[in-house]
Fold:
Amino acid sequence: MKIPQMITAELRRLTSTRMSVIALIALLAVPILYGGLYLWANQDPYGNLSSVPVALVVDDQGAQVNGQQRNLGDEAAEQLLDSDTFEWHRVSSDAADAGLSAGDFDFIVTLPADFTEAVASLSSDSPRQADIELRTNDANNYLASTIGTQAVARIQASVAKKVVDEAGLSLLDALHTIRVSLVDATNGATQLVDGLGTAKNGSSQLASGSATLADGSALLADGTAQLSSGADQLRDGSASLRDGSARVADGAQQVAGGVDRIDDAARQVGSIAQDAANRLPEARADIVAALKEAHVSPERIDEILARLDTVGDRLTAANTRVQDTVNQINQLDDGARQVADGSASVASGADTLANGASTLAGGAATAASGAAQLRDGSAQLRDGASQLDSGIGQLQTGATQLRDGLASGVQQIPDSDDATRKAQAAAISDPVAVGTSAVTKAQNYGAGLAPFFAALAGWIGIYALFLIVRPVSKRAITALRSPVRVTLAGWLTPAGLGALQMVGLFTVLAIALQFSFANPWAALGILLSASATYAAIVLALNVWLGSVGQFLGLVLMVLQLVTAGGTFPWQTLPAPLAALHHVLPMGYVVDAMRQVMYGGDVSRVGPDLLVLGAWMAGGVLLATLGVTRMTHHRTLRDLQPSLIG
Structure:
C-alpha cells in the first residue's frame, strides 16, 4: 500500500459517518477557536480601559496655595472626569466602599481631606507628601490592582505636573525679579566702584598731604618750643632791661640836671670870658691913651703893648678855649637832655617791651602747646589718612568683587519674557519626554500575543487531532508494509489536517482580526512548518508510548506554554525552565513568527527553522524506528491496552 492510499484510507475512515465528520470539523476548529477567540478578547484591552468602572472619592478641604485658596482635589477630579482613562464615578466614601464590595467598582481612588494642605506644605518649613489612597478588591479582579496602581501614578504625575508648573512659574518670576534687582545692584556697585576710585585718589592725596602736614607740624612744634624758650628769655631780659632802663632814665635825668647847672655856669664863664675878650682892645686903647698921657715913650708903650698883646693873645686864646668849652658844655647839655629824654623813652619802651615780651612769652607758650597738639593731631591725621587710604583701597577691591559677582550673577540668570518663563515652568514640571522608537512594533496588544498563541494553538490542534487520527495504520503494520511509508503516512495525515488548521487560523488573524503581517507568506509557512513539527513529535510519542505518549504530549504542551517566552521575557523564568526554552521547539516558533510578522531580523528565522527541522526530522525518525519495532515485535501494550486509552 502506498502512502497516498494509506492517507486516503485514514481520511475516509475519519469521514465515514456524519458524527465522525462533525468530530473532525470540531477538532479542526479547535486551534482556530482557541487562538482566534483569545486574541479577539485581548486584541486591545488597554484601549478599552474607559469602560472600567472606578470610584473617585474627594474629601479634600482645600487650603491656601501661593496666597490663593485652592482645592487641588476638586481640580484633579474635574480633569479625571473629563478624561477617558477610566469610567470615573465621583461618589461618597460609603458609596465607594459598598460599590467595591459589590463589584460595581474595580478600585477606589481617594483624595484625602488634607490633600491640598499637604501640597501647600512644600513651600513651608514642614513639607510633607500628599497622599492618594488606592483601595482594590482582588475578589473582583486581580489585575485591577495593577491597573489601579497605574491610574494613581497618572493622577500623581498629573497633580505633580500642575503643582510644579505653578511653583516653577512663581520661582522663575521671582528669579526674574531678582535679576532685575541684581542689574540695579550691579549698576549701583559700578557707581560705587567709580566713586571709590575717586575717593581713593582723594584719600591718597589726603594721606600724602597729612604726612607733609605731620612733618611740618613737627618742625613747627620744635620751632614754637624754641620760640617759647626764647620768648621766656626775652621776657626775663626785657624785664631786666625795663628795670635797668628805668634806673638809667633816673640817672640820665640827674646827669641832665647836673649838666644843666654846669651849662649855666659855663655860659656865665663864657659870657665873662667873652666880655673880657671883647674889652681887651678897649683896655689896650685905654692903656695906650693912659701911657701917652703919662708921656711914656712910644718904645716903652710898644714894649708894654708887646707884653700886653701877649697877655691879650693868651686871653683871647683862653676865651676861645672857654667858648669852645662852653659850646661843648652846651652840646653836652643838649646830649644829656637827649640822653635823659631817650633814656626815658627807652625806659618807657623797655616797659612796653617787657609787657610785650611777657605777652609774647605767654603767646609763645600757647603757640608751643598748640603746635605740639597740632603735631600730635597731624600725626594722628597722617595715620588715620593712611588707614583711610588703605581701607578705601580694600573697599574698592571689595566693591569691584561685588560688582563682578553681581554681574556674574546677572549673567547666570537668563533674561526671559513671560512666554519663555511659562514654557520653562512647563518643562520643569515635565522635564523628561520619553521618546520611543522601535526596530519593530506590534500593531496592538493582541498582535503582540499573536505569535505565541498561534504557536500554542498549532500544538493544541495537532494534539486534538490525534484524539481521532490513528498514529499508524495497524493494518499496514500487520501486512508488514515498509515502516518508512507507514510512518510518513501516519505523519502526513495529521500534518495535512494541521495545515488546514493553520490556514484557517491565519485567515482569522489576518482578515477577521485584521492583524498586519510584514511577511504574510513567510508567517503562514512558519505556521505550517510548526504544525508539521508538532505532528512529528506527537506521532513519535504515540508510536512509542501509545496513550501515555498522548498524555505526555499534553505535558509537553504545558512545559512549552510556560517556557516559550510568549508573554514575559524568557529571562524571567527560573533556571530549569529557562534551560528548556532553548530546547523545546515552541520558543523558536514564537521567535520566527515575531520576526516575519513585525518586520524584524529575517536572518534569525533561518536558525529557528533549522531547530524546527531538527525536531521534525527527529520525530519522524523516532516514529519510524517505533514502527519498525512494531513490525517485528509485539509488546505487552499491544496485548493489554493502557488504562487511559
